[in-house]
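Supplementary notes for students who missed Thursday's class. We covered one full example, reproduced here. Read the sequence, then the structure, then the short commentary at the end.
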Amino acid sequence: MNHIIPTAIAYQTKLINNLCGLRELGLEDDSSQVTIDTIKAISRYIATIKTEADAMVNSRKTANKIEDTRERAISYCDTVKAHFGPIRRAVDKLELMVADEDWPLVKYRELLFRH
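Structure (token representation):
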């Protein structure tokens, strides 16, 4: 919440400023649609992360109220963990979209191919 979303918003803002600059210069053409689509995709991924993270926190709060340790663990497994996948997919997509110099964390490919 404090690394990925602000980074994605900052990168999205760069794209929006670029698009506005192109429009001011009268240089908007069909290729601008790629930038618009990217801006929209970033918005969708940000919304997914926020929605799923909020739902995960609520699921966790509910699970934490369960007295029985085994039942609490099952609740974590069945309800809290279910939000991990959508969050991870959205973050992975943003990692591929956001410029390397703007991304605050080590990228997956850097972990795999670091010498």
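Commentary. The chain has five helices and no strands. The radius of gyration is 19 Å. If anything here is unclear, bring it to office hours.
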